[in-house]
Amino acid sequence: MSLWFIQLIPTSWLEFAAFMILIVGAVMFFAGHIFKYTPFVKQYNFPLRVIGFILLLAGAYFNGGLGVEMEYRARIEEMQKRVELAEQKSLEANRQIEKVIEQQTVVIQQDTEETLAEIERLKSEINANCELTPEMIILYNRGMEVTE
Amino acid sequence: MNKEEWGIVLVILAVVLVLTGCASTTVPVTMNFPQAPEPILMEPEKLEPLPEDAKEMSDLLENSTVNYGKHRELQMKYLQWQRWYETNRRLHKETTE
Question: ipTM score here?
């Protein structure tokens, strides 16, 4: 048995309902006792007392449970705020990461371009004394082969 | 029903009511799994092999330079992955504890 539906009812309505159940229960219970000695309505005294007692019990339970329900609602609200804050911070961190990647990618590409330009400039000196053989190329490429 | 039976019924009713109040009070708010930034989700670039028709030392140097650049980009993205994970792990811990 679950009381999930209570979460759908506004707080002020709950407080009013719990209080009214208690009051109506008390009134009916004591009215039942008075009716016992009153002519014409004497026969209603027992059902009145029983219903009054049940309402008194329910009212006491709801008034006590209301505190728990309010605490529960406060915890939900606090948790929602914390989650929203964490999600905002996470988005902000993502934006910073994207910015860093964008900036550093440009720097790395510039570095590569500069080095390639330097190689092109010194090409004749670099190639003066050495020539690549097919075996050297195979050995060099082996380092980047992926073994699956 | 006599008075005693009514009393038993009322006591049972009261116990049921009280036990209902013991229902679980777990807060029904959950944190969505965070979305990682787009650049670190992209397919990594493969290294360039040295062309078979390469003859000169400068070809080797050019190829190495291009591959070093790719490695640096991946290294940087890898570090950002770690940063993303650490940030979100900390946020999750702060939120749920």
Answer: 0.71
